[in-house]
Amino acid sequence: MATKGKQQSTARSTAPAKGAARGSSGSGAPTTRRRPSPAVYRRRRQVVFGALLVVLALIVAGVVAISTSLAGNSEPQAVNPPDASPAATQGSVPTGTPSPSASPTPVCDFNLMTVAAKTDKAAYGADEKPLLTMTITNGNAAPCEVNVGTSQMEYLVMSGSDRIFSSKDCQTGGVDLIKTIQAGKSETANFPWERNRTLEGCGAINAKPGGGGAYYTFEARLGNKSSAKAVFQLN
């Protein structure tokens, strides 16, 4: 009886070892790897495709930028606006044939020009100085140029046949002044007379025009054109 009890005790003590061996051999066996689902493959393909699209877009943008830069430098930029002449901005003499719209204004036909003389008053007191006015009118059918400078003008005051005053007598140097006068329009020039006498060549003279109600005439001249005489009175 003692022997049976001892054998049962031995069998129980070795049973766990056998179980441990089974457990050890089960853990050492190779495990099977799970394959990704089709949804995972699909997401991966979308990510890769999106990345390719971004790279292609960057390449295309770079090519377009380089092409635009090269195209912009292929032609020189205009320095002057279309209506501006390079000669005008550089200050040099214009070259080339002028356009019909830039044709020069013709010189006035003097046969169609008129010169008129007048004074600002008909009679002057002892201390008043006459204002002599010359009016030049363009009788041409179109605008034209005329020299209205002091080189061409003369204000002449007479008393009968006595030459009293001329603006040319003491003129040291006349100047030219080219003016464009519109058709049918006029230009005026004023000369304040000091009520003095002059001689040709600006010779010295002490005599002065007499007052007391004497009458004088003023004649305006422009080149070879003379006006009708304007009569005025000095008191």
Secondary structure tally: strands: 11
Helix and strand string, N-terminal first?
HHHEEEEEEEEEEE
**N- to C-terminal distance:** 186 Å
Specify the CATH architecture of the domain at 110-234: Sandwich
Query: How much helical structure, as a percent, in the residues?
Result: 25-40%
Structural class label: alpha+beta
Name the overall outline. rod-shaped
Biggest pleated sheet: 6 strands, mixed
Descriptive notes:
By secondary structure, this protein is an alpha+beta fold. The chain has a domain of 125 residues: Immunoglobulin-like. It has three helices and eleven strands. Strands 2, 5, 6, 9, 10 and 11 form a six-stranded mixed β-sheet that branches. Strands 1-3-8 form a three-stranded antiparallel β-sheet, with no helix packed on it. The longest helix has 35 residues. It is rod-shaped. The N terminus is likely disordered.
